[in-house]
Structure formats: C-alpha cells, structure tokens
Amino acid sequence: MPEGPARGGKGREKEKGRNKAEGRDEREEEPGKKEEKGGEEVGMKSFERIERSARESARKTKRRRNRDIERESKKKKKEKKEKKKKKKKPVERS
Fold first, then answer.
1. Higher per-residue pLDDT: 56 or 24
2. Where does the record place the region Disordered (predicted)?
3. Are 9 and 2 in contact (CB under 8 A)?
4. Where are the extended beta strands (E) located within 1-94?
5. How far apart, in Å, do the first and last CA atoms of the chain sit?
6. What is d(CA 11, CA 21) in angstroms, rounded to the nearest whole number?
C-alpha cells in the first residue's frame, strides 16, 4: 500500500520530531523535567499522577465515612434524648 498524503495518512515529511532509531518522540518532555505553572507541576510522571489521585480519593472517602459516622451518632443522640423525654412525662395528680 502506498504511504503518504495520497493514501490519506501522514506523509514521511510530516513526521517531524520522530526519532526512529530511539523509537521515541523528541517533542515529548524529558522525564524528570518539571515546570511550575499555577502552583501545579507540569510534566508529572503518570505513576505520580495516579498516586496523587489515589490519595485524593482516599481522603474524600475518609471524609465521607466520617461525615456518615457523625450523622449517625447525632441521630442516635437525638433519638435517645426523645426517648428520655417520653419517659419523663409528668404524671397528673388529682
């Protein structure tokens, strides 16, 4: 099959920055090279990104769990208070 613009694919001349001998794209950022941009690092390695997202999701889960526990304890406390109130109803004397 012919390769190039006639076939609709990339032509050889359009493959700029491709180093066939090394098998990598020179346009990619070099690993370890980091650039500050608005407080976040650009060019972060994929495993670091995954690690960070895992930490964030764990933090969210922990918060959610704590909120649920807090909600349940408040509910139980309220129910206990209501129960105590019902027991303490004054008895009418005649």
1. 56
2. 1-94
3. no
4. 18-19, 24-25, 35-37, 40-42
5. 108
6. 18
- Tokens, residue 89: 């109803």
Region class of 52: left (phi > 0), else alpha (psi between -120 and 50), else beta? alpha
pLDDT digits (tens, 9 = 90+) for 37-76: 555 555 668 888 899 999 999 999 999 999 999 999 999 9
Phi, psi of 37 (to 5 degrees): -150, 100
pTM above 0.85, yes or no: no
User: 45-77 burial, b for 16+ CB within 10 Å, e for fewer?
Assistant: eeeeeeeeeeeeeeeeeeeeeeeeeeeeeeeee
> Hey, what amino acid is at 67?
R
Q: 8's torsion region: left (phi>0), alpha (psi -120 to 50) or beta?
A: left
Report the mean per-residue pLDDT for the chain.
Answer: 74
Length of the chain: 94
